[in-house]
Design goal:
- It comes from Priestia endophytica DSM 13796.
- Keywords: Membrane, Transmembrane, Transmembrane helix.
- This is Regulatory protein YrvL.
- It is built from 5 helices and 2 strands.
- It is mainly alpha-helical and 146 residues long.
- The chain has a domain at 44-145.
- A two-stranded antiparallel ribbon has the order 1-2.
- α2 runs antiparallel to α3 and α3 crosses α4.
- The longest helix has 42 residues, at 2-43.
- The chain is extended.
Length: 146
C-alpha cells in the first residue's frame, strides 16, 4: 500500500514538472516574440502606447494573417498551375506571400489606434517575417544541394 502511494506521488511530481517546463518554454517564446517586436518598433521609429497594445498587435496579426493565409494558399495553387518555369513560380509565390504579409500588417495597423507604423516599417517587417517564415525551406534546399 505504501509503495502505491509513492508511485502516485512520483507521477504527480513528474506531471507537475512537465507542465511547469512547458509553461516556462511557452513564456520564453512569447516574451522573445514580444521583445523582438518592441525592439523592431524602436529601430523603425514606430510608436505604440503600451506593452499591452503590442501584445494585442501580435495577437491580431496572427489572427488576420492566419485568415488571409487561406487566400494566399489558393493563389499559390493557381500560380503553380499557370506558370511553367520553376524560377518564375518561386518568385511569384514569394511575392504573393510578401503581399499578404504586408496586407495583414496594414489591416492590423489601421485597426489599432495605439500603434502607428510607417509604410517602410510595414514593408521591412513583412520582409523580415517572410525571411523568418522561409528559413526552414531555405535550409532544406541548402542541404539538398550538398
Amino acid at each position: 500500500m505504501e509503495r502505491n502511494s509513492k508511485s502516485v506521488g512520483s507521477h504527480i511530481m513528474a506531471i507537475t514538472l512537465i507542465v511547469l517546463l512547458v509553461l516556462f518554454s511557452a513564456s520564453i517564446i512569447f516574451f522573445g516574440i514580444l521583445f523582438g517586436t518592441v525592439g523592431f518598433f524602436h529601430i523603425s521609429n514606430s510608436s505604440y502606447d503600451s506593452i499591452w497594445s503590442v501584445c494585442l498587435f501580435i495577437l491580431l496579426l496572427s489572427f488576420v494573417s492566419g485568415f488571409l493565409e487561406l487566400f494566399e494558399y489558393l493563389l499559390k495553387i493557381i500560380i503553380t498551375g499557370i506558370s511553367a518555369q520553376h524560377k518564375v513560380t518561386v518568385l511569384l509565390k514569394y511575392g504573393v506571400e510578401l503581399l499578404f504579409l504586408y496586407g495583414s500588417l496594414s489591416i492590423v495597423d489601421d485597426w489599432m489606434e495605439s500603434i502607428s507604423l510607417s509604410s517602410y516599417s510595414k514593408l521591412f517587417f513583412a520582409i523580415l517575417l517572410l525571411i523568418i517564415g522561409n528559413i526552414d525551406s531555405l535550409q532544406k534546399k541548402k542541404h539538398k544541394n550538398k
